[in-house]
Amino acid sequence: MSWTYVKTVLGALQETHVSEYGKTLQKLLALTLRRLGYDHLEERSVQGVDIDVMKQATGERLAFEVKTSQTAQITIGEKDGRGLDARRTDGYETFYAILCYPLCFSEGWIIVPSRRIKPGRHQVMALLRGRDETLSQVINALFPSIMEEIAPKLLQQPHGSLLRFLKEEYKI
């Protein structure tokens, strides 16, 4: 499946589910990580780091703060950095997962180790130099097929129901 289709679906979701859009993307990233074999997943919609995952067989642990933007900039807050620092202390590799739609969309998810970004305002395209190439590629290879699988169901959801649907249907 292509990112062109993903772009079309995200555009439709953005238009009809404005208030849930960012959190929906966060949950879709969590679903992608689950499908990549991370069998323990904790996704938080309110407080704390957005996503923690672990592969129990290997003990690999990752934590993500998700940032979505409709402009070419994102803001990293002090609280974001402190949350990821705490997860790193707990033995997690920590990342910012950035999706900029529509302006920087050609890059897909940009996964950047948290130690490479300081709090403040950042140009998304400038963060490409510091991204984790392998993790970005693995996520971006799977994300379009997940979107293809669930987009018809997502697009049928009435306004205000995406997050509930993803929780009930996909347990995220």
Describe the structure.
The model has no long low-confidence stretch (mean pLDDT 92). β1 and β2 form a beta hairpin. The protein has helices at residues 3-16, 21-35, 78-89, 133-156, 162-170; strands spanning 40-43, 51-55, 60-69, 73-76, 93-100, 110-113, 120-123. The longest helix is centred in the last third of the chain and has 24 residues, at 133-156. With 172 residues, the protein is of the alpha+beta class. The chain starts with a helix and ends with a helix. It has a single domain, classed as Trna Endonuclease, Chain: A, domain 1. It has a five-stranded mixed β-sheet with strand order 1-2-3-5-6, sandwiched between helices. A two-stranded antiparallel ribbon has the order 4-7.
Key terms:
two-stranded antiparallel ribbon, 172 residues, alpha+beta, globular, five-stranded mixed beta sheet, single chain, Trna Endonuclease, Chain: A, domain 1
